[in-house]
Amino acid sequence: MGFGTHLVHYDVAPDDPNQPNVTPIYQTATFEQDHVDVGGRFEYSRSGNPTRKVLEDHIAALESGTHGFAFASGMAAITCVCRLLSAGDEILADWDLYGGAARLFGRVLDRAGVRLNISDALDLDRFRAAITPATKLVYIESPTNPLLRVLDLRAVAQLAHERGLLVAVDSSAMTPYLQRPLELGVDIVIHSATKYLSGHSDVTAGIVVVKDAELAKRIYFLQNAEGNALAPFECFLLLRGLKTLKLRMDAQQKNAIAVAEYLRTQPAVASVGYPGFGALVTARLGSFERAKQFAEALKLFKIAVSFGSVTSGISLPATMSHASVPPEQMKTREIPRDLLRISVGIEDIDDLLADLAEQLALLG
Ligand SMILES: Cc1ncc(COP(=O)(O)O)c(C=O)c1O
């Protein structure tokens, strides 16, 4: 079965005698049990809910994993993975990270005794040398956020496994349509499903997928113990959005390539970043003031902190998504103040290019 077929063909309502074609929303907190000493298939929606179970199984299969977990946000998903660690353990991460992850590592987990060690995952020898006896988890994004550096997932997984470490990849910018980290040896895939998986900027959600039953047990324990699973209605919205993932990604990627190619021809644009896949493009305009003026003048690219919606968006990471990076981490990383991150949507490309051209002309 091809990926596009798989997106829409799966068991949408296991064991449901009514055979609905769409997964019903099980808007219930509790499920009746026949016995006080034997649980049923579902008991309590924090622990498990039929709508969530369909979503979790579906996304697990799409990622070539065996167990999926849906959370209230991407940050809740990242937090759950980090809870695998204990005080004294260390996370080794690439330096280019989403601002919220940087904040979690540097401002929350540090208080629980979990330390962050930052290195450069593009330089594999340097990254390997940064592993210490305390390192338990290697955490990376690819492409990275906001600089869109593409990391070698297979090589990073291999070097981590040589030392018995777990590897987690935030694959939000790619989705399982464009990248399946578990097939490359990675242990844990994380998504902010708020982005392309849901695709319409109407859900906040997070996903974790693994392919190891023991690891899945530990993640499930944490999901239930901490109580941050995704609510049934959000699961339904995410299931609905997922059906068009391939259509949206194809359209958005095509537009993104055209946007990147256009921007590259423009003398007013100092540099353009596009990793070759997906629908995120970066552009540097030479100064914060020029970047701000351009972003605020655009009509079709809405200023929005997130990415991955069918509507085009633009953000300035230094003052938006990455404003929360703790100052001490800024010593080892750079978030250029003239860097714009463009999330390309499904609009007609001529309209998008005309908007860009019009506002670039105003910059001079
Ligand atoms: C790459 C990446 N990972 C994780 C997150 C966090 O996800 P959420 O906002 O759904 O909590 C974001 C949010 O912007 C992100 O860009």
CATH-assigned fold name of the largest domain: Aspartate Aminotransferase, domain 2
> What value does the Rg take, in angstroms?
21 Å
Strand segment tally: 12
How are the strands ordered across the major sheet? 1-7-6-5-4-2-3
Mean pLDDT over the full residue set: 97
CATH architecture of the largest domain: 3-Layer(aba) Sandwich
Q: Summarize the helix and strand pattern as letters.
A: HHEHEHEHEHEHEEHHHEEHEEHEH
Report low-confidence residues grouped into runs of 5 or more.
none
Ligands and ions found: pyridoxal-5'-phosphate
GO molecular function, one term: cysteine-S-conjugate beta-lyase activity
EC number: 4.4.1.13
Protein name: cysteine-S-conjugate beta-lyase
GO cellular component, one term: cytoplasm
Structural summary, described in words:
- The protein is built from 13 helices and 12 strands.
- The mean pLDDT is 97.
- The strands form 2 sheets. It has a 7-stranded mixed β-sheet with strand order 1-7-6-5-4-2-3, with helices on both faces. A 5-stranded mixed β-sheet has the order 8-9-12-11-10.
- The longest helix has 20 residues.
- Helix 4 links the parallel strand 2 and strand 3.
- Helices cover 36% and strands 15% of the residues.
- It has 364 residues and is an alpha/beta fold.
- Helix 11 packs across helix 13.
- The chain is globular, with a radius of gyration of 21 Å.
- The chain folds into 2 domains: 240 residues, Type I PLP-dependent aspartate aminotransferase-like (Major domain) (Aspartate Aminotransferase, domain 2, 3-Layer(aba) Sandwich); 119 residues, Aspartate Aminotransferase, domain 1 (Alpha-Beta Complex), CATH 3.90.1150.10.
- It comes from Bryocella elongata.
- This is cysteine-S-conjugate beta-lyase.
- GO terms for molecular function: cysteine-S-conjugate beta-lyase activity; pyridoxal phosphate binding.
- Its EC number is 4.4.1.13.
- Its cofactor is pyridoxal 5'-phosphate.
